[in-house]
Amino acid sequence: MKLTTSQLSRRDFLTATMLLAATAMLPGVATANSATSSMAKSAMPRRRLGALEVSAIGLGCMNLAWGFGPPMEKRKAIELIREAYERGVTLFDSAEAYGPFISEEYVGEALAPVRNQVVIASKFGFDIGPSGELRGLNSRPAHIRDVVEASLRRLRTGHIDLLYQHRVDPSVPIEDVAGTVKRLVDEGKVLHFGLSEAGDATIRRAYTELPVAALQNEYSIWTRDPEGEVLQTCEELGIGLVAWGPLGKGYLAGTIPPSATFQKGIDLRASMPRFTQEAMTANRSIVELIERMAQRKEAKPGQIALAWLLARKPWIVPIPGTTKIEHLTENIAAASVQLNASDIQEIETGYAAIKLQGERSSEAVMALIDDGARAGTSSKGGHGKSPLRAKASAK
After folding, report:
1. Residue 10: phi, psi to the nearest 5?
2. Cα Rg, the chain, nearest whole Å
3. Does residue 246 have a cis bond before it (omega within 30 degrees)?
4. 27: which residues sit within 8 A by CB, 6+ positions away?
5. CA torsion sign, 214 to 215 to 219 to 225?
6. By the 8 A CB rule, do 260 and 269 touch?
7. 161 exposure class (CB count in 10 Å sphere: 0-12, 13-18, 19+)
8. Is 293 helix (H, G, I), strand (E, B) or coil?
9. CA-based, 20 to 30 A from 214: which of 22, 136, 208, 317?
10. Residue 96: closest CA among 64, 123, 134
């Protein structure tokens, strides 16, 4: 279990304070608020991802480096990460592919002074070229080890708290992937294992090799793919669900007008069918549904979207990303927004009457998602049977 600031001894607290103060003296680095602000760290409810305890709302750190615009200026990114920590966030989600590499560098530098009070998650699974291009999937055991060693250096740590396979690689049996991570766990370089955008069969096969602490799949009011097999499997096996895209890539916050455009090559939404002007116009009713609830609750629409996820299951943890501290403040405050059974039913009834237009991601991105991790597919077969298992089962 990770210790909160209130659980630290006076000596440990003073040590952390001194480290923060020393870091603030480095060129181009600013601490969040002041070195003593951790005394007033906000209380944040906790949830469990398997055996791992984290804040009820985490911080997705992709947006800081890549995906929905150019990378943030380093100083501002570090300030935002530290502000999240001061406000009670303990789960920080990154990946080597974000940037690539930039997100891990920001996260590592920002959290170094408080490393033992936070949970850092990262991911492997892509083949990244010399110019930073993503050339496809790669979860070969030797590659996993290379990625982890590089991630540890960028994150300035001796271990990764939660290591995900970023996407299921159909060319590598999931048992071999889990077995490699298991050896990294035995070596102390990884503490917990996770999968991202995996389906039921893959989750179960991985779990037989190494317990899966968390599954990170896209899940929100307007993206329901995990409902059904995946959520049932998580509940049965005690796996937490980390919901990425909990604000519908910004759309559910109600701040993106149907007339919005996105720059190709800079913003991934430019290639997403759900973010064409036609689709955003057609889907406006989902925002209006959330806005009506927000008005009654005296909350922001984005807070309702996050509160909906928190109300679904006690082991679901959303990780909204942002580049603005005011939006960070709103997201964190969603942990105190309560939706009762009647509120949830109202959202579900309204959602059922809406015919959404457009797939959640581009065709190329959707092709990387595991069988059973997207609506309307079955994961009964799963990906890639291990040659070792094949021999064993043939006996």
Report:
1. -60, -40
2. 20
3. no
4. none
5. negative
6. no
7. buried
8. helix
9. 136
10. 123
Compute CA distances 130 → 86, 100, 127, 193, 332, whole Å.
36, 10, 10, 27, 37
Counting other chains too, the contacts that 370-373 makes at CB distance below 8 Å and 24 or more residues apart are 370/167, 370/168, 370/197, 370/198, 370/199, 370/202, 371/199, 371/201, 371/202, 372/198, 372/199, 372/200, 372/201, 372/202, 372/229, 372/230, 373/197, 373/198, 373/199, 373/217, 373/225, 373/226, 373/230
Token pair for 228: 């059904």
Count Cβ atoms within 10 A of the Cβ of residue 378 and give its class: 0-12 exposed, 13-18 middle, 19 or more buried: exposed
Residue 196 has φ and ψ, to the nearest 5°, of -130, 135
According to CATH, what is the number of the domain 30-386? 3.20.20.100
In the block, tokens 């040659």 appear at 387
pTM metric for this prediction: 0.86
The interaxial angle of helices 141-155 and 174-186, nearest 10 deg, is: 40
Retrieve residue 299's tokens. 């909350």
Q: Which of helix, strand or coil describes residue 372? A: coil
Token duo for residue 10: 């006076």
pLDDT in tens, the chain (395 residues): 333 333 333 334 333 433 333 333 333 333 333 332 333 356 899 999 999 999 999 999 999 999 998 899 999 999 999 999 999 999 999 999 999 999 999 999 999 999 999 999 999 999 999 999 999 999 999 999 999 999 999 999 999 999 999 999 999 999 999 999 999 999 999 999 999 999 999 999 999 999 999 999 999 999 999 998 999 999 999 999 999 999 999 999 999 999 999 999 999 999 999 999 999 999 999 999 999 999 999 999 999 999 999 999 999 999 999 999 999 999 999 999 999 999 999 999 999 999 999 999 999 999 999 989 987 665 554 444 433 333 333 33
Residues marked as catalytic: 98
DSSP string, 157-215: SS-EEEEEESS--TTS-HHHHHHHHHHHHHTTSEEEEEEES--HHHHHHHHHHS-EEEE
**Any idea where the domains of the chain sit in the sequence?**
30-386
Tell me how far apart the alpha carbons of residues 222 and 354 are, in angstroms, rounded to a whole number.
10
Rounded distance, CA 102 to CA 84, Å? 18
